[in-house]
Specification:
The protein is an alpha/beta fold. Helices cover 43% and strands 18% of the residues. A hairpin with a 5-residue loop joins strand 8 (202-204) and strand 9.
Amino acid sequence: MPDYLEIMQACAEAAGVVPEEFVQPTDHTGQFGDIELHWLDWGNPNAAPVLLLHGGSLTAHTWDMAVLCLRHKYHFIALDQRGHGDSGWTQESGLAADNGDLMLADTKAFIEHLDLPNLVLVGMSMGGINTIRYVSRYGDHLRAVGIVDVAPVSMQEGQQEMADYRQATDVLANFEDFVDRSKKFMPHRAEAHLRYSLFHSLKQTSDGSYTWKRDHRPRPLEEMSATEMERLRLGREAALWEDVRGIRQPTILFRGEDSKILSPEVASKMVGELPKGQLVTISRATHNVHSDNPVDFAAALDAFLSDLSVQDG
């Protein structure tokens, strides 16, 4: 087993993160309906609570470096969403259901379980879509919202690049193969940072090869015709714009300056549709804003939350 504290420290040094202290989160699991969910709790329970929802094919540990910057000020909880990380997978009988709807129900149940007052919800990519949908329906109790590099419309170039990378790295013979592929896909990120992420994102199979900690199974929705898929996409896009307009809490939208998913034009439109929205563009960051540049991401999130505290006071 790797020494996670040692690789965390190496990652932090490579990412320019200088925390007040190096602390590892505690692991928790619980049953929520038909699914067992896993989450990380970073301690400091008397501080303002922030729940973090990761992006597709990622895990709760994707937030680690950003959290290290701020855990002395806030109570961070990071959830492994269903089919990701150490959370359970959807049962075979439920594969025909919309995965977004299932994650929305999970999020509702998990937040009710936490029962934390003045909760801030922050979601990235897939987790950001989940956040938008949750807040518009059930989020009256939330204090504020953070959305990371996602909107109802995404750039096709970035989506295709990520799909190609996932397909090319579905299963590889050994851990070092993943490191090599990841260095080519993310040349802007230091190797120590990549290794830390991969240690938490991969698992070894029975034959000794490695694969991602995510649900790989195809779903019936993926077997639709191109016409049906386009109709579904347009319907979801329109519904998401309605959800964006329904978010009443102060909301910060983070965009990576070099993102190939969220364009500047769509980001500006989204902030215009949010009743209380603001846009922050993080330099030296692609789609994985919080991980590419955790220091600047954490500083912007802290400024946003600190401003809320001043307003509350």
